[in-house]
Amino acid sequence: MAAAPRRAGRPRRELKGVSAEANQLAELLLEQIDAAGLSVEAVHERMRSPAFSVATLYRRLRGELLHVDGQLYLDAVLEVCTPEEQREAVRERAEPLLGTFAGQRDTAAEENDEPSDSADGLASELAAARAEIKTLQQELLRVERERLRDERERLLASAADTEKTGQVVSAQAMRAIAQLGEEVRELRRALGSANTAPGTPAAARETAPPVLHQIPENPAETDTELETVHEAWRRMDPDGTRTASVLRRTLDTVLDGERTGRYQWSQLSKVEKTYFVSRVERELSHEFDQVGGQLMPFALDGVEVGIRYSSTGSWSIPREAVSKPCLLVRMDDSRAQCSAGLVRVRPEFLSESANRDGKRTLNRAGLAAVRHLFQQELPSNVLSGLSEEDRAAIFSRTSGQQRVEELLRRAQGVAIGRTAFVTVAKQAEGLKRARDARRSLAGQGIIVLGAVHDHAKALKGLGLPSLRKGELVSLRLVRGRPGRGGAPGIMLGADRWVPARPDDPVQELPYPYERLISPGATGQRR
Predict the structure, then answer these.
(1) What does DSSP say about strands 325-332 and 303-310: parallel, antiparallel, or unpaired?
(2) 3-state DSSP assignment of residue 389
(3) Most C-beta atoms within 10 A of its C-beta, which of 5, 31, 86, 136?
């Protein structure tokens, strides 16, 4: 069968391979492209995540450096241009040519075993050029990786938002996310190759994770970078309260209670949990105003730090984090606890097996090496601490105002934040609904206090926790009577009111009670 006419493209130039075999392999590749009726640009576009530019492909098709990576380009061209049933025959034609390349490389290596004095200068220039190329490769790959990560986060956020509105995530969006994940993995492999010393066997380059930091040969030696990161973190967040606030804020954002009515981690979908992890990295960077390095999203005092999150204590470590200091964050929403630690992710600290992305988990030695930073209470969403019966009673109400009032009736004596109110009300004005509830709840003997000045004194008099801006607390009161003079209480006008017992009858509070709270008076009787 006659070959299809070659499509218009750049005119072919003279072959420039180092040997006749390299030129013959170039002709073989061009033959496959011509048979497919494609231009070189079209071939490049159809390759799956190529690690080389179209200009590099043109050079290989002129025979340049085919003796170095001819197998790579042969496989790439065959996959795009040659029918599967014909590929084996083409590979048989190429096999003797590729075999001669190995011999040529060995001969060149033997000839270079005894460098002459005149070659010393060239060797130095070559080493400098290689170092410059390596630096440029790393920078280009870093920029591309950041672009892919941002695009993947955008798609994940879009998919998460689609799930929240009850729609089905399109197959096209999920394919795009999977393709971006594959591109990120290809970039990681390419960067690993850029960091591999010349002469490393191909098999070793394919399987070994890239060494991105020189680990001290003696593990007992002081790890100055880890010490630097540890001290920097202790300065920024000594007790973990800032990190806990970031985790709570990020979780509430992804839960999106105002629209969905959700209030805990277990209600998130798998896509949303993935999005949460990537968003935590970004929010921590913003909270502590830290700019990432070449590979890691976080940098403390000039040291690149990886951030890994887990809800179970089993952290997945990607290849680019191997040998780097890593911040391990854990959050248990059901127990309202969070913690963090630091570890240098040494290869011997990782499990033998890896997942499809090449991520491995910390083994026992790795977990034992983690340096504890803090354990902190997670700012809780009060809905998580209620019983199923109470939550069912709250969400069974038909209007947002009724649900907010039911929440204040059933969650007494604890601080309730804005997030819980908007989740229950399913509207942005949830906190206003809570303030509006004061009148109707006063008829049931329930006082609702905030963080304003006079309310703060009443909180102290009633033995309630202090509140932050945007928080409210409710409590049922009754008038004090003989035998309860030592109980905490407040003065509302001329009467002393104390916390009610379950068997106390309902007594209506005077309203508006804000004007009746005696400044500085706690109602304690002597």
Answers:
(1) parallel
(2) helix
(3) 31
Q: Element (H or E) spanning 456, and its range? A: helix 453-462
Do 278 and 271 meet the contact criterion of CB atoms below 8 Å apart?
no
Burial (CB count <10 Å: 0-12, 13-18, 19+), residue 393: middle
Of 81, 75, 80, nearest in space to 31 by CA:
81
Backbone φ, ψ for residue 468 (5° rounding): -100, 165
Question: What dihedral angle (degrees, nearest 10) is formed by the CA atoms of 183, 186, 187, 192?
Answer: 160
Nearest to 65 by CA among 99, 110, 19: 19
Say how many C-beta atoms besides its own lie within 10 A of residue 476's C-beta: 21
CA distance 376 to 341: 12
By DSSP bridging, strand 360-361 and strand 371-377 are unpaired
Residues 298/305, Cβ–Cβ less than 8 Å: yes
Which residues share a beta bridge with 448? 474
Residue 350's DSSP bridge partners are 362
Q: Which two tokens stand for residue 103?
A: 């011999």
Nearest Cα to 153, choosing from 281, 38, 262? 281
Helix or strand holding residue 462 (H, E): helix 453-462
Distance (Å, whole) CA 349 – CA 65: 39
Q: How many CA atoms lie within 13 A of 294 on its CB side?
A: 13
Say what the pLDDT of residue 112 is: 45
CA distances from 45 to 5, 48, 81, 86, 147 (A): 20, 8, 12, 22, 19
DSSP string spanning 195-207? TSPTT--HHHHHH
The highest-confidence range among 91-105, 211-225, 246-260, 278-292, by mean pLDDT, is 246-260
Whether the Cβ atoms of residue 174 and residue 330 lie closer than 8 Å to each other: no
Q: What is the pLDDT of residue 22?
A: 86
What is the enclosing helix (H) or strand (E) of 174? helix 171-194
Scanning the structure block, which residue is given the tokens 């392999």? 25
Confidence of residue 247 (pLDDT cuts 50, 70, 90): very high
Phi-psi region of 199 (alpha: psi -120 to 50; beta: other; left: phi over 0): left
pLDDT at 216 over 50: no
Give the neighbor-by-neighbor strand order of the sheet with 495-499: 446-449, 473-479, 495-499, 490-492
- Helix ranges (H only) for 213-287 are 224-236, 241-255, 257-260, 270-287
Q: Which two tokens stand for residue 25?
A: 């392999």
Q: Cα(117)–Cα(506) distance, rounded to whole angstroms? A: 102
Q: How far apart are CA 25 and CA 82, in angstroms?
A: 15
Two tokens at 393? 């009673």
Q: Report whether 477 contacts 499 (CB < 8 A).
A: yes
